[in-house]
Specification:
33% strand, Rossmann fold, eight-stranded mixed beta sheet, alpha/beta, 3 domains, OB fold (Dihydrolipoamide Acetyltransferase, E2P), 422 residues
């Protein structure tokens, strides 16, 4: 069956019409005519599989990776990088208009990644039998890979070494997670289906097979609820990132921005909103290891970071000390608890960097009813961002700036910085 693709939408797929229904097709471009098979038929739409491109877009290019369309990691390798940015910008603008009920949204700035490949400092490698790699798109089937064009080079080398050490392990792990900082400090997590008492290889062996820069490893078990419980660690459980003049310690169970080329740009754009010195007391919800809190602290009188992850809070407090920041404090609490600090302190600005689900209505209402005059919202999901902006508008805020920062080249993911003021 032939379909003409009208446009690309959030999620990485193109849309067209087939049998009077909207159909979704992956790995296509606008104006292409493609042949498809129907995978799933729903009441109002069809999920389709691309069979072949009958009429190609002049923008279509040959993907760099031989696993593209099989591995679930990438969506846009058939699209030149400049065109990827334009597509994401259009999707962001349309989403803010449609869901956020905003008229003529202007994306003030689009910040590309210095390199659209080799940017990821983290990988979660899946293992089953002889297969070592990543899941197929919309599947739990593992694609066996030798190389990933999104990963930092030393992680690619470590994946090759992982295949060599698997026969030496007494028990096969479910997953192995790699994190490599911009100082090339590497941390590795081995995740097992059950608790194991000992690990047959030491740091010396792992340095020989995986990376000479390994600082430490963690052994974990996957619990029934899908979370991972630490069993024991060997070596150091942290590495360091250096962003400009600031040093961040990042522990094996903490989180740091995945695109090593874009962290400095994200920090600079957020810091820019506080350089004028109008804001004295700032709240940073979902602060992680203090990635935004510590740089912003240099331009305000006081700043409080709130984070649920205890390891990240421990890192944040360590980062406060090693960077000689005296006007910041970090508290371990859930965001719904953290927002109650508004009742105790007179904040005049807030930084938000929530998960993909966005903010709860309670948090938005608490902010809009407070003395806070400025919101700097970092989002990885334009749909929930648009929904939350609409709630802020109802509470008396206006959207002043929207910037798109491309944290995830070759994928459909869109990172946004939105600035709202009362």
């Amino acid at each position: 069956m032939e379909v003409k693709i009208e446009k690309l939408v959030y999620g990485g797929k193109g849309i067209g019409r087939l049998e009077n229904k909207t159909c979704f097709v992956p790995f296509v471009l606008p104006e292409e005519i493609v042949e498809v098979d129907i995978k799933k038929e729903k009441k109002s739409f069809l999920e389709c599989q691309l069979k072949q491109v009958i009429k190609k877009s002049p923008d279509r290019i040959e993907p760099a990776c031989k696993y593209f369309t099989y591995c679930g990691g990438c969506d846009y390798q058939h699209i030149p990088y400049e065109k990827q940015l334009q597509i994401k910008k259009d999707i962001l603008s349309e989403t803010l208009s449609r869901i956020g009920k905003l008229q003529e949204v202007q994306i003030e700035k689009v910040i590309p990644s210095e390199n659209p490949f080799f940017y990821r400092n983290k990988a979660q490698v899946k293992i089953k039998g002889e297969k070592v790699g990543f899941y197929k798109k919309e599947s739990k089937e593992i694609v066996n890979i030798d190389y990933c064009y999104l990963l930092k080079e030393d992680i690619n080398q470590s994946i090759k070494g992982l295949k060599e050490i698997l026969p030496l392990l007494t028990f096969q792990p479910l997953e192995v997670h790699f994190y490599s900082s911009n100082q090339d400090d590497m941390l590795v997590k081995f995740i097992y289906p059950g608790r194991i008492k000992r690990f047959p290889l030491g740091i010396k062996h792992l340095k020989g097979f995986l990376s000479k820069n390994i600082k430490g490893i963690g052994i974990y078990r996957r619990k029934r609820d899908g979370t991972d419980e630490k069993v024991f660690t060997v070596g150091n459980t942290y590495g360091f990132e250096k962003i400009g003049e600031i040093t961040f310690r990042v522990s094996i169970d903490s989180f740091f921005q995945v695109n090593r080329f874009q962290v400095k740009n994200l920090i600079n754009e957020v810091v820019e909103e506080f350089k004028e010195g109008f804001y004295k007391n700032v709240l940073d919800l979902y602060c992680g290891v203090g990635t935004l809190t510590i740089p912003v602290a240099q331009y305000v009188e006081r700043i409080t970071g709130v984070e649920l992850n205890p390891y990240a809070v421990y890192d944040a407090n360590h980062n406060r000390k090693i960077n000689s920041i005296k006007n910041a404090k970090f508290l371990k609490m859930e965001s719904r608890e953290g927002i109650k600090l508004i009742d105790k302190e007179s904040f005049d600005a807030v930084i938000l960097d929530p998960p993909r689900t966005g903010l709860s209505k309670i948090i938005v209402e608490k902010i809009t009813a407070s003395s806070i005059k400025k919101v700097v919202y970092v989002s990885c999901n334009p749909s929930t961002l648009a929904r939350d902006i609409n709630l802020f508008k109802e509470g008396g805020f206006e959207l002043r700036k929207v910037k798109m920062i491309d944290m995830f080249p070759q994928t459909y993911h869109i990172e946004t910085i939105a600035v709202l003021e009362k």
